[in-house]
Amino acid sequence: MDYTAPDLSGRVALVAGATRGAGRGIAVALGAAGATVWCTGRSTAGRRSEYDRPETIEETAELVTAAGGRGLPAVVDHLDPGQVDELVSRIEQRSGRLDVLVNDVWGGERLFQEGVPLWESDLVRGLRLLRLGVETHLVTSAHALRLLVRRPGGLVVEMTDGTAAYNGRTYRVSAFYDLVKVAVTRLAFSQAHELRPFGGTAVALTPGWLRSEMMLDLFGVTEQNWRDATADQPHFCISESPLFVGRAVAALAADPDRGRWSGTSTSSGELSRVYGFPDVDGTRPDCWRYLVEVQEAGRPAGDVGYR
């Protein structure tokens, strides 16, 4: 299935947490649409974050430019209000506007303790998870929205894991993880309310089972041979590339009627059905329906009817 990126030339986006995973996919997809994309993170060519991963924010910016946009890397710790304030000032001085804010800061994969009850959890790790997953989003929006609301039509995308409907009935990993993901969805709702008088839109968005760099490494595969991982984990068949959720954000940004989504929770799969964009392999994976109807129902793995 062919894909033609929408036209976002002249638009300026900030993708907070763009070093890898969904953030990188979103930044590159916005670049493919012709946008200027400010890409922030803590892993640089000269210093890695505590993830100790090889991906860097400079690489993401280069990928944005190679895709057809303009990638601008910025090393920022989004827990530091001063650094975020300085970033927004740079965006204002160099780009003069901000049209899209994507709050994708996370950094918690190595902090949550799956299946450990709250009273047995490492409180320091849990509270750090909350700060990384929620406080960073609040700090970023508090500064960036001052610039975004100067023009009507601004878009805020709060990245989370799971739709509001799914998370509303499902315990997610641990008390801390569960709280973070629900809080981010509610933050989108709150920002939608506050942006409405300024013609702005805020949406909570989740990818499906993401083939991030870390996930591919976990299964010992690449994007080219990722289906080999289904031998050990059959349900990985429903996974999606980071560009899929990136194309979802690009579609939202290009939609003149995007306000219909304001305050809602949606997924890459749902937006694909509405806007018609495919994943890089030409399919349209619908992970959250698959999880309920196949994996949780105990049915044999198989993505037929879910792509």
Description:
- This protein has 307 residues and is of the alpha/beta class.
- It has a single domain, classed as NAD(P)-binding Rossmann-like Domain (Rossmann fold).
- The chain has 10 helices and 7 strands.
- It has a 7-stranded parallel sheet with strand order 3-2-1-4-5-6-7, with helices on both faces.
Query: What best-fitting shape do the alpha-carbon axes yield?
Result: globular
The helix/strand order is EHEHEHEHEHHEHHEHH
Mean pLDDT rating: 95
How many structural domains? Answer: 1
Provide a quick synopsis of the model.
With about 300 residues, the chain is α/β, with parallel strands linked by helices.
Key features of this structure:
307 residues, alpha/beta, Rossmann fold, seven-stranded parallel β-sheet, 10 helices, globular
List strands and helices in order, with pairings.
Elements: E1 12-16, H1 21-32, E2 36-41, H2 57-67, E3 70-75, H3 81-95, E4 100-103, H4 123-148, E5 155-159, H5 164-169, H6 175-195, E6 201-206, H7 213-219, H8 242-254, E7 265-267, H9 268-275, H10 287-295
Parallel strand pairs: 1-2, 1-4, 2-3, 4-5, 5-6, 6-7
Helix pairs in contact: 1-2, 1-8, 3-4, 4-6, 8-9
